[in-house]
Task: structure prediction
Amino acid sequence: MRIISVANQKGGCGKTTVAVNMAAALSRLGSKTLLIDMDPQAHATYAMGYTERSSERRTSYDIFRSHFDNIQFPTEELVINDRELLHFIPANMMLSAAEINLGGMNGAAAILSNTLKDPFFDQYEYVIIDSPPSFGFLTLNAMYSADTIIVPMDLSYFSFNGINSLYRVTGLLEEETGRRPGVFFVLNIYDQRTRFARQLETDAKNKLGPYLLETRIRGSVRIKEAAKNGKTIFEYDPKCSSALDFYNMTSELLTAEKIRHDILMKEFMLHAPKAGKVYVLGDFNGWEKTEANRLNKLENGTWSAHFNLKRGKYRYKFLVDDNWTYDPENPKREQNIFGTVDSVIEF
Result:
């Protein structure tokens, strides 16, 4: 069983659309697949056509309620199985209560993972989890369970903001469990006709490298119509361009874990609590000041960002409110043609 979580703390980037239609594509490819709605907004539940019935049966909330109230019930009661190879666990607003209660529990992030170890779930080749737009305990449960995380990105530079947080979470998971899920990104709701979209795509490629899937999910009214009618895109219009995009994206993701090991993730950090903006510029991004190369400010006044880099040697500097500075935490520096020094990394 391979577990794929769809996550991004930014709303409006199409997580549910990706989760629902990726699960549908897997079932179309002949794999028995389980889709789990972990979002209190229950958008996947609506998109699958189960809104009215979700209040009358067990939902993903019961996974957590069984721990809160020590309630036992047959695991199969969670699952709706009226599609041949695509089964589903719906959600409702009660998940919001679960989010609150999880904050005071030991092992709260592992509840879903432990549930999926039940032999009942061995029948599924894939489990797809749709998570809420936050990094709360529900999303942590989805990420803790995952072998792979896919991050949809819409045409907004705000989509870059969550990348650093996501990598930090996966780093914490690795420290706790010794296992780090693969993280891949997909441009969603994509319109290649605009210059802005093309520039964002270039910046995403520079920042994410091979972890950005080649497939682009084009925006389409057919996707919205399918969700409104409680159907996957393959049930609603299997010959439309969106169905092709989701099929191609899913096929690509199945082989994405074979990415070469000469690509490493590097975190750049600078403590500058009074700075307004901080960028990291270097050989790896063409020394270009773009939003993709801007660091995110953490609560302690440290700025941080992650980049996927090929093995090699790179010069770099931080640009702090239009003032250049080398990395004070990196003792390796070399003089440049301007008579100053650049920080240097090599791996």
